[in-house]
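User: My collaborator and I are trying to settle a disagreement about how two of our proteins should look. Neither of us wants to argue from intuition anymore, so we agreed to look at predicted structures for both before our next call. Could you fold the first one, then the second, and keep them clearly separated?

Assistant: That sounds like a sensible way to settle it. I'll keep them separate. The first protein:
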Amino acid sequence: MAQALIEAERLKLVDALADGEWHSGEDLAAVAGITRAGLAKRIEKLRDWGLDVDARQGLGYRLPQPLERLLPERIQAPLQYDILTATDSTNTRLLESDAARDPQALLAEYQTAGRGRRGREWRSPFAANLYLSLAWSFASWPRSLSALPLAVGVLCAQALREQGAADVGLKWPNDLYARGRKLGGILIEHRGEAGGACRVIIGIGINVAMSAAQAGGIEQPWISLAELTPTPPSRNRLAAELLQRLAEGVSRFETQGFEAFAAEWATLDLARDRPVRVLQGEQGYEGIGRGVDAQGALIVEALGQYQTLHSGEISLRLA
């Protein structure tokens, strides 16, 4: 109960600063019913969430840009979902959840242990991006399960384009790119026995309005949705659109497999008929991307031969 109260106090301060304007410390402290020293401590707790709070003598505090929290009343979805203020990882939470509730989704404002493919850290500052996971139980092991990340990539690209991001493409097997920089990623984990029932957790992270300060330490070039749309993107609208498409799309994948998504994947495939570099451990070689097969495996032409590559420990670099 005490933790919930502390969280509610922090969220009240977040909402007071959400407009991106300057607010005096005196006013903020008075509204919260605390001292200026108490306010300073709460500001530091917001910084612990990855919020970049400006402080200036004579002006007070502000966020460098307006912030939009996720609100249930603004997200209409055809499946049950929950929104957490903070968690370690939405994928981890759903892996430990009751499968009887599937399909179910979980969103979070902030993650302390978000992760990407091959165990990489996924930077998750508070309310800057979209962190979403979907748990789905298949009655039997789906055909072409290995291609599910590609199908989910298509669904994410559709949702992003609906929000005005026209130049989104897909980098095999699970990355969303725009203008040569990473916009988002997909992490799928599954449990089950081949031939029997199968449960998948589909994790999605999309950069929405992350600032350079919040992205400090990210080594690869990245881009946010805010740079791609003519008007500031809405995290609530994006969440609603994505949940809608996932509910319909994963159901379609269950009955039709990757075949239902292959044509659109081909139009979004950033490696198709272009120079690529394939990395396998310490070894690497150059080739030309030639699309994917029915199982979602990458086809690369190198030294006059076609090679079929599965994700595993392979990394793909675009020229």
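The second protein, kept apart from the first:
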Amino acid sequence: MLAAGAFAVPAHAQKTKIHRVAFIATFTPVQELPSNSAVRAFVGRLRELGYVEGRNLVLDLRSLEGRYERSSELLAHIVRLKPDVIFSASQVILERSPGATGNIPVVTLASWSIVESGLAKSLARPGGTITGQLYDIESGIEAKRLQLLRELVPQAKRVAFLAHSGQWDDPDGKQVRAAAQRLGVTLVNAAYKGTDIQAAFAAIDREAPDAVFVAAGPMNYGNRQKISDFVSARFLPCSAGIREIAEYGCLMSYGVDVGDMMRRAAGSAAKILAGAKPGDLPIEQPTKFDFVINAKAARAIGITIPQSMLLRADRVIE
């Protein structure tokens, strides 16, 4: 009688399954993606979960570089490569090309409109090939951010709303406008289309506001360095929804912890690689938020930050 396992393949001879994950950024240039903190958080979490580049993972980094009109073309190219999972940094990419990903599982950064858009049946049980992470919760988070800016800069009566075209009238924009009325703030729309943020900068220079409120979203995230350079050069108090903009020179930021969100997105991707169906994975709400104050920027502008605000901050940049 043959011993049990006589025909088993030695461990060293077993073929390692190679998993392919496609990562689609919306704005950041492809050459900058490997050093991007959000990408590093995503890749780092995959590594922790056992998916390592050069061993059992091929990570295909792509970017629209702000050109959403390329969504269909880019998705078609990615689908031909037959990835096991696609990560999309914005649900807008999927909305512009419905059905383009076929049966390939997708993890996306989503807004509350993902159900309304038809990409998911519900947050608790998406039901199709798409799951992901919400990057916003109730729109009140943006209104709260305007309130924090007003607490830091009580003299700010006119505030520029620096946003991509359409954000003035979306749910977050309406909430911020309503909050501005309650706070006695005149909100000035400084919008831009495509990737030409200079149009927004020109509007701010023309309107000469007391402060700048940077709307949350992928386009402003992609322009984070330009925005920080702009407000720093003009000594304008600035409120952003992303920590990195504050790190680059904006007065403050308050919003979802992007690193944590990306790690959780990688966790969803890992579950799919292990056999889970995306339609069974809930679209998760954010659980971590950052309030960052840039004390160095405050000193340059000539603002004294109350001690009570410093104590409330998760991080103070000196």
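Some points you might bring to the call about the second protein. Confidence is low (pLDDT under 50) at residues 1-13. The domain at 18-137+259-280 is CATH 3.40.50.2300 (Rossmann fold).
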